Amino acid sequence: MAVAYERITDQLRQAVRTGRWKPGDRLPPVAELAGEFGWSVPAVQDALRILRDEGLVEKQDGRGTVVRRPRTVAVRTNLRHQWEKSRAREPLEERARTGATERDTGLHVDDLVFHASYRETEADEDLARAFDLPEGTPLLERRYRTRYAAESAPFSLMTSYLVRDMIAKNPDLLDEAKEPWPGGSQAQLYTLGIELGRIEERVTARPPAPEEAAELELPPGTSVLVLRKTSVDVNDRIVSVSDVILPGDRTEMLFVTPLERW
Question: What's the fold here for domain 4-67?
Answer without folding.
Answer: Arc Repressor Mutant, subunit A (1.10.10)
